[in-house]
Amino acid sequence: MSISPGFGFTVNQVHRYDPYKNFKFLVRWDNRIVAGVSKVGALKRTTEVVEHRQGGASNMTFKSPGQSKYEPITLERGVTHDHEFEKWASQVWRFRAGLGMESALKGFRKDIRIEVLNEAGQIVLAYNIYRCWVSEYQALPELDASANAIAIETLTLQHEGWERDLAVTEPTEETFDPPT
What we know:
45% strand; mainly beta; eight-stranded antiparallel sheet
């Protein structure tokens, strides 16, 4: 552990002291950047607590981890002529399909990747989210003639877990040298 003057301490030898910002990121699926995503919901995992007692220690409760579950992730972006959100959502339910053909479940799951960028546009963190599928699709928000807002479409994704890509390491950031 090293002590950094005036900044507290760092556990590992890192070169950056400021936390990364949450406004510069990319979302990818099918190995392509998804255009215009303006908001990504939090990645959250919860593990249930299983409480139990032992016969010889009846005045004490012990706790163990139980089942874990991953919360759904939402993606938001401004409504455009790009059909990627709608095409993916339509694999789970197609309105004009014939009776019994409403779902096209072949390929309805996708792995997605969320990349967090630093101010210089370098990838600093990446998370892979596995076997995602669309459980909710909002094509248009409530429309209001007296409002001054952007029309947003939303996907809610169910998934089977996520993990950080540890191959993404801290980049060497650009520095500013003042003119002499």
